[in-house]
TrEMBL record:
Any one biological process term the GO annotation gives: ubiquitin-dependent protein catabolic process
Record-annotated Cullin family profile domain positions: 325-422
Protein family according to the UniProt entry: Belongs to the cullin family.
Lineage: Eukaryota, Viridiplantae, Streptophyta, Embryophyta, Tracheophyta
Name under which the protein is recorded: Cullin family profile domain-containing protein
GO MF annotations in UniProt: ubiquitin protein ligase binding
Recorded superkingdom: Eukaryota
Pfam families: Cullin (PF00888)
Length: 429
């Protein structure tokens, strides 16, 4: 039985679909990987088109189309992407395009493999692999080689300058960063970020300085509030507290804009801002104790002053902080107190007092369920990985939370603690 003839248009349409799919994959566009069935269909189509009798032997046309596939891809996609970039970014793009090109050569060589075995060998033509690599050399490298040379020279000079800069005394670099933060030199901070991004561990240096600066500025606000409260202790308590809370929020918004605009949303700086605010959480707790004493001792527990204090703290406690909620920040603060090796180094009495104050602060958070979710996850990690420093403290805070928010609020957490203790007891037996 005679084999069915594959006409040129029919065969090339099948091959073209496979090449197009490969290009989409290389460009990281939504596309499923090439299946073994698709690969076999393309290979078989090319094999058939090369072994048919004349005038249906399309070996020469396929060899020409193989080259054209590279030329078209380079002209339409590769060169435009390289022309729009410069210096280091151009070199990175070139490296990416060269890697992609080698992948494309490897796959198309497999598709057209039958040409290499017979047609190319008999006619002493350049092999498929050579054709693919030559296309890149002739079309890409020959066009951008001068730009590549200039970019390499620029990078070499930059590297030498960065080495000189990085070898400056540490205190001098920190002082420069502090000065820019103090003077709100946003553009200069952006430039400093881009510069230090190229220095090994350079960003850690700026992030730590940033964290310390935010903490210091927040601490200064607390000192100002204390001074104001001392001067007004006989007249009001709500006003200094409300002013401070507003300033703390403004401080956060200001430096969150720095993280976004100057530091390219880098996670190191999100972490630094969050850690700075964990320090301020402790100060917020101390502040609440202070003003609650004013309400009690100076203002005879008058409901007007209770209301003023409540409104001031509700503003802060429901503010988004460092890309997360205050509920998450409070849960993290508790975790640092309760886990082994946490950042809060306190004695047993101090831990109990601090946990009591955290629970009081929780009263001002509107979404207490969100706090419960974060707290439950952190509790699970402490228990499952044996990171809990003290079982009594774990039970103590759950009791306090239960008294404050009700049994339903803590039932899931209490169940987890009890289950783990039963498991440990059974294991011990």
């Amino acid at each position: 039985m005679a084999r069915e003839i594959i006409e040129w248009d029919q065969g090339w349409d099948c091959i073209q679909k496979g090449i197009t799919k490969l290009k989409r994959i290389l460009e990281e566009q939504p596309e499923e990987q090439l299946s073994s069935e698709e690969y076999l269909e393309i290979w078989t189509t090319i094999y058939t088109m090369c072994t048919q009798k004349r005038p249906h032997d399309y070996s020469q046309q396929l060899y020409n189309k193989y080259r054209e596939a590279f030329e078209e891809y380079i002209t339409s996609t590769v060169l435009p992407s390289l022309r729009e970039k410069h210096d280091e970014f151009m070199l990175r793009e070139l490296d990416k395009r060269w890697s992609n090109h080698k992948v494309m050569v490897r796959w198309l060589s497999r598709f057209f493999h039958y040409l290499d075995r017979y047609f190319i060998a008999r006619r002493s033509l350049p092999a498929l692999n050579e054709v693919g690599l030559t296309c890149f050399r002739d079309q890409v490298y020959n066009e951008i080689k001068d730009k590549v040379r200039d970019a390499v020279i620029i990078l070499k000079v930059q590297h030498e300058l960065l080495e000189v800069f990085a070898n400056q005394p540490l205190e001098k670099q920190i002082s420069a960063c502090r000065a820019l933060l103090t003077d709100d030199k946003v553009d200069d901070l952006s430039r400093m970020y881009r510069l230090y991004h190229k220095i090994p561990k350079g960003l850690e240096l700026i992030a730590n300085t940033f964290k310390q600066h935010v903490t210091n500025e927040g601490t200064d606000l607390f000192q100002q509030a204390e001074d104001a409260a001392s001067n007004q202790a006989t007249t009001s308590s709500g006003a200094p507290g409300q002013v401070l809370i507003r300033k703390i929020i403004e401080l956060h918004d200001k430096y969150m804009a720095y993280v976004t605009d100057c530091f390219s949303n880098n996670t190191l700086f999100h972490k630094a801002l969050k850690e700075a605010y964990e320090v301020l959480i402790r100060k917020i707790i101390e502040l609440h104790d202070k003003y609650m004493a004013y309400v009690t001792d100076c203002f005879s527990n008058n409901t007007l002053f209770h209301k003023a204090l409540k409104e001031a703290f509700e503003v802060f406690c429901n503010k988004t902080v460092a890309g997360g909620s205050s509920a998450e920040l409070l849960a993290t603060f508790c975790d640092n107190i309760l886990k082994k090796g946490g950042s809060e180094k306190l004695g047993d009495e101090a831990i109990e007092e601090t946990l009591e104050k955290v629970v009081k602060l929780l009263a001002y958070i509107s979404d207490k369920d969100l706090f419960a979710e974060f707290y439950w996850k952190k509790l699970a990690r402490r228990l499952l990985f044996d990171r809990s420093a003290n079982d009594d403290h774990e039970r103590s805070i759950l009791t306090k939370l239960k008294q404050q928010c009700g049994g339903q609020f803590t039932s899931k957490m209490e169940g987890m603690v009890s289950s783990l203790h039963i498991l440990c007891f059974i294991t011990y037996l």
